[in-house]
Amino acid sequence: MLRVYILLALKVLQRRKFYTFISLFCISVTLMVILLVSSLIENITHPPGPERNSERFLAIEKMSIIAANGRSNQRTQPGYQFLNAVIKPMETPELTSIFSTRSQVAGFRNGKRIKSQLKRTDSQYWKILQFDFIEGRPFSELEAKQGQHLAVISEDTARQYFDETSALGKSIIVSGESYQVIGVVANVSVLHWNASADIWVPLFANASTAFTQQAMGGFMGLIMGKTPEQIPAMKSEFNKRLAAYKHPDPKRWPVVIASANSKFEQIARLFNKDLNVPPKTKELTIWIIVTMVLFMLLPTINLVNLNISRILERASEIGVRKSFGARSSHLISQFMLENIILTCIGGVIGFMLALLSMYFISVSGVVPFHSFEINFRVFAAAVSVILFFGILSGVYPAWKMSRMNPINALKGVI
Amino acid sequence: MIRIERVKKSYRTDTIQTTALNDVSVHIKSGEFVSIMGPSGCGKSTLMNMIGLLDKPCEGKIYIDAQRIESYNDKSIAPIRNEKIGFIFQSFHLINDLSVLDNVELPLLYRKISAKERRRLALEALDKVSLNARAKHFPNQLSGGQQQRVAIARAIVGNPKILLADEPTGNLDSAMGNEIMTILDDLNKKEKTTIVMVTHDDEKAQLTERIIRLFDGQLVN
């Protein structure tokens, strides 16, 4: 029975090639877009590369202070002083790290300017974030504390300064300071902003230590537990220590607000800047799902229409099948199977298109150093999309078909 | 075998009501070869559809094998159609995308039969209409007469007790028509299949055991 149905499905697809083309086009383009978007979301929320432990860590990347009169407030990145006072003494995290946000620096090679993004970090940074070292090593706790002029650079930066030769032991001069390269790491996508940079140098390799007194600006913190289950405990300890924290100018700024956010919460924060309210992760999830469903609904409605007109062409077959004892359920399952075969073919094409466009996006450098990946979760999303299409666009036409009066169907009167 | 008792059927459109059958009673015995005749629009096809359980009467009773079935729903009627009745249509109604063999197998798809057994029964049915050699062909590669023979093979593959033929020779020339009549006659004589045939052709009707004549939805005797 299955063989006959599959055979018939393939024959029907060959019958009206333009219809088949439109159906396959709808399915494959939609699937391609969904795959690209879900791969991007997946990549940000469950990042591979250095941020691969993101399920275990929380980031403190924004804070705001409110004046006593409640009228003025400031909102920016946390400062070293704040992070040092709040996260460094924390007991629930296994590791805590303070590092600067990216700043643009310039270096020169043969008179040519090389622009790079620089981060100043402590040594624990290298333990929380799992960089892939192509050569060399990160700086140690002692080296970081002493503020030695050492640097870890990205593969791309190494190529810009030293071509294909090893960068280890060589010096780079950025913004007037010379650093000895001790490690080269694989490039990091700009979308993984906790890790992303071109050059990483020790926090204290800085002429001035004035930053240690500043409560606000220029820094980020990461706190990492042993397991993802420790996240709630880390959050609650963070909030407790935040409540106890006093701004260096407490009379002027009595209220300090900040939050420790997971990767998904960090993204939700992009859409909801008020630190007073928790990140709207639920709303973001619903928004993503609704947008995707709406995006899929339009081609589905189109497919339903195409399917109905295809079915009506087969009225005689339906009449014959009913006359010879096919029940409605037989006809529904036959048509659903045919439709799932069609969507599977579209799915395979869409999958290939997605892989192709992912490759081109990676190569084009639209998103610097970002390489798309299709993992199990993205694949599962793709399969659900195919089933969504197959079932939703097939069920109504199949039901309509099964209800056809056999006499009218045989006469071709619908 | 088939008993139709005081059946009435009328169709209603927005403006008019047409009576297709008016108080028709027919009794067809097992093994009979009966033809239904009458002018166009007299209710022949409606009567045929009632017997074939494709249509339901407005009033009256229908018995098949002493089983009263006019009030059965679609789900309960489907297995009766599948097991007891075989249809032959004027315009063959073969599925052009399927091979002759797959077309003949069609009624067996709705029974719990293995693929191997389906194939065997289909080849056996094709043998009865002398078309085994064409099993792998597609309907549009065959002549009209051959297509109708495939349709007969499809109708008899499930070994039904009743064959309903709606103008089976209507689309064929006389030689092919005679060929089809011979096959139907053989099925009736050798296999004892009950055959009800709608026809316009008096000559073909004379070949059957009994003629039921209809006029304006009523029996004429």
Key phrases:
heterodimer, A: 414 residues, alpha+beta, 2 domains, 7-stranded mixed sheet, 3-stranded antiparallel sheet, 13 helices, 13 strands, elongated, B: 221 residues, alpha/beta, Rossmann fold, 6-stranded mixed sheet, 4-stranded antiparallel sheet, 7 helices
Give your account of this protein's structure.
The complex is a heterodimer of chains A (414) and B (221). Chain A has 2 domains: 175 residues, no CATH class; 199 residues, no CATH class. In chain A, 49% of the residues lie in helices and 17% in strands. Chain A has 13 helices and 13 strands. In chain A, the strands form 3 sheets. In chain A, strands 5, 6, 7, 8, 9, 10 and 11 form a 7-stranded mixed β-sheet that branches. Chain A has a 3-stranded antiparallel β-sheet with strand order 1-12-4. In chain A, helix 2 packs antiparallel against helix 12. The longest helix of chain A is centred in the C-terminal third of the chain and has 37 residues. Chain B is α/β, with parallel strands linked by helices and 221 residues long. Chain B has one domain: 3-Layer(aba) Sandwich (Rossmann fold). In chain B, the strands form 2 sheets. Chain B has a 6-stranded mixed β-sheet with strand order 6-7-8-3-9-10, with helices on both faces. In chain B, strands 2-1-4-5 form a 4-stranded antiparallel β-sheet, covered by helices on one side. In chain B, strand 1 and strand 2 form a beta hairpin. The longest helix of chain B is centred in the last third of the chain and has 17 residues. Chain B is globular. The chains are: A alpha+beta (414), B alpha/beta (221).
Secondary structure elements and their pairing?
The complex is a heterodimer of chains A (414) and B (221).
Chain A: H1 2-15, H2 17-45, E1 57-60, E2 63-66, E3 73-76, H3 80-86, E4 95-100, E5 103-109, E6 112-121, H4 125-128, E7 133-136, H5 141-146, E8 150-154, H6 155-162, E9 171-174, E10 177-185, E11 199-202, E12 219-224, H7 231-244, E13 255-258, H8 263-271, H9 281-312, H10 315-323, H11 328-364, H12 376-402, H13 406-411
Parallel strand pairs in A: 6-11, 8-10
Antiparallel strand pairs in A: 1-12, 2-3, 2-13, 4-12, 5-6, 7-10, 8-11, 9-10
Helix pairs in contact in A: 1-11, 2-9, 2-11, 2-12, 9-12, 11-12
Chain B: E1 2-12, E2 17-28, E3 33-37, H1 44-51, E4 59-64, E5 67-68, H2 74-84, E6 85-88, H3 100-105, H4 115-128, H5 144-156, E7 162-166, H6 174-190, E8 194-198, H7 202-206, E9 210-215, E10 218-220
Parallel strand pairs in B: 3-8, 3-9, 6-7, 7-8
Antiparallel strand pairs in B: 1-2, 1-4, 4-5, 9-10
Helix pairs in contact in B: 4-5, 5-6
